[in-house]
Amino acid sequence: MISLGAPFSRALLPLALGMMRRAMLRRGAQSYEQHLGGIPIHYFQLAPQPGVGWEQPVVLIHGIADSALTWLFVLHGMTGIGPVYALDLPGFGQSGYPKGRRYATIDEQVAVVQALIRDCIGRPALLVGNSMGGWIAAKLAARTPELTTGIVLVDPGGALLDGRASWEPFARTAMVPDLATVRRIYRQMFGRIPLALYLGQRSFQALFQREAVRQFIMATREEDLLTPSELRSIRVPVALVWGQRDTFLPEGSCTFFRTHLPRAQILELPGCGHLPQRERPQELVHFTQQFVRLRLD
Q1: Structural domain includes residue 261
Q2: Is residue 1 part of a domain?
Q3: What pTM was estimated for this model as a whole?
Q4: Half-sphere exposure of 230 toward its Cβ, with a 13 Å CA cutoff?
Q5: Number of structural domains, the chain?
Q6: Structural domain that includes position 219
C-alpha cells in the first residue's frame, strides 16, 4: 500500500477539487449564489449547446460528501439537452448551512432543489441525481411533480429496505473511523480505483467526517427513507442507472428501486461502481439524451 505523509494526504483532494472548479469555469460554467429555502446555495450554470431542440433544463444533484464538481465530466454533454444547473447541496461544496445548524435534513435538501427550480429556472426541469441526489430527486418527483419533467436516478440512495436496521451498517461505514474504512469505501464505490485516491486517503476521510455528513447520517429517521408506495406514486418518467460493482449502498438497494419503479428505463453498467458520472460519463450522457428523446420529447 502506498503511504505518504499525513499533511500531503490531507491536502491532495482539496487541491484536486480546486483544479476541477477551475476546469468547470474554463468550460463555460457560470458560478452563482442565491438564498434558496433560506440557505445560501452555490450552483454552476451552463448554457445549452446552440441549436438544441429540446431546451429542457437539467438539474444535476450530487450525493453525500460530494459536490457539484462530481458532474465535471458530464456537464458539457448535458448541455445537448438544455441549460444545465449543478448545485452544491447545503453544507457541501461552496454552499452554506441552515441557520443555527451544521447539516440539512433530507426534507431541507428537497426544499432547496424545489426553490432552485421555482426561483432560478422558472419552469419544470429534468433531475439527474446520484446517490443522496437520487433520493432527493425521487422525493421531489413524488411531492411536486409539476416541478419536474422526469428523473434520472444514478445509483440512488435512501431505500427503506428493512428500515433503520438496513441504514445502520451503511451509517457506521460512512462515519469513516479509520483509513482501513476509507480503503473499503474505495472498493465499494469504484470499479477501478484511481491512484490519486490512495494518495489522498486522509482528505477523503475528512470529507466524510464533516458535520454536514455526520450530523445528517445521525439525524436521518426511518420515515425519511423512500418507501415502496412513495416510489410507486411517481408519475413523471423515470430512468434508473446502476453501476453493477456498486456495493457502497445497503445490499438490496438496486432490487428495491427496480421492483418499485416498474416503468423505469434502466441502464446497468458492468464494471462500474457508485459514481457513473465519473467512471462512465459518456454512457450516462448518451443514456440521458436517449431518455429525453424517447420519454420526454
Answers
A1: yes
A2: no
A3: 0.95
A4: 20
A5: 1
A6: 6-296
